[in-house]
Design a protein that fits this description.
The protein has 182 residues and is mostly helical. The chain has helices at residues 22-42, 44-57, 59-72, 74-95, 120-127, 131-140, 153-163, 166-169, 171-181, and strands at 7-11, 17-21, 111-115, 148-152.
Length: 182
């Protein structure tokens, strides 16, 4: 033991006292952590089984730890969520043809899912879905793509205006357009 080190006494598995210096105790902890880490890496199936059992036995602790992780790592979680949504969106766009059905634009940033016969908002309300949930259903194949097409944002507004439904959403814009036409 080196001079100035604090002495630590611990019992071993047989009940005998072992005497360590504080620095030796830290080294032993480090060795044990490294040994445990290697075991976890070498036995991933057993670790997954252990984790599943622990989560099932401790649901409130698991939920609490998830909440705490999300609070501590807000930016990482939001970034991962944005990437996940973007992948789903790209999958939906590719399943609907990948380009605007009117002008042919293929920029995924401006493409929108359009209900050919209208009623998209009513369908979402009836099914109690958000746009992301609706896109996920399309991507998973649990919602048919019949009656859906892709339009860019400009073509979608023009389509709704030509159908006469755009005025219902934006009456002041509709009045200004009608004045300019006459």
């Amino acid at each position: 033991m080196s001079n100035g080190d604090e002495i630590v006494r611990k019992r071993d598995s047989s009940g005998r006292y072992l005497t360590y210096s504080f620095s030796e105790s830290l080294k032993a902890r480090k060795r044990n952590r490294e040994r445990d880490r290697r075991w976890r890496e070498d036995h991933p199936k057993r670790m997954n089984l252990y984790r599943r059992r622990w989560k099932k036995a401790h649901p409130s602790k698991d939920a609490r730890s998830k909440r705490e992780y999300k609070k501590r790592n807000r930016e990482i979680v939001l970034s991962a969520e944005r990437r996940r949504r973007w992948k789903i969106r790209l999958k939906v766009i590719s399943s609907l043809g990948g380009r605007c059905s009117r002008c042919g634009t293929d920029d995924p940033r401006v493409l929108q899912v359009n209900h050919v016969h209208g009623g998209g908002q009513q369908e979402l309300r009836k099914l109690h879905l958000t746009n992301q949930q609706f896109h996920l259903r399309i991507a998973n194949g649990s919602h048919t793509t019949d009656g859906l097409n892709l339009l860019c944002a400009n073509c979608n507004v023009l389509y709704e205006y030509e159908r006469g439904t755009y005025a219902n959403f934006h009456p002041n814009v509709h009045k200004a357009i009608v004045r300019q036409e006459s």
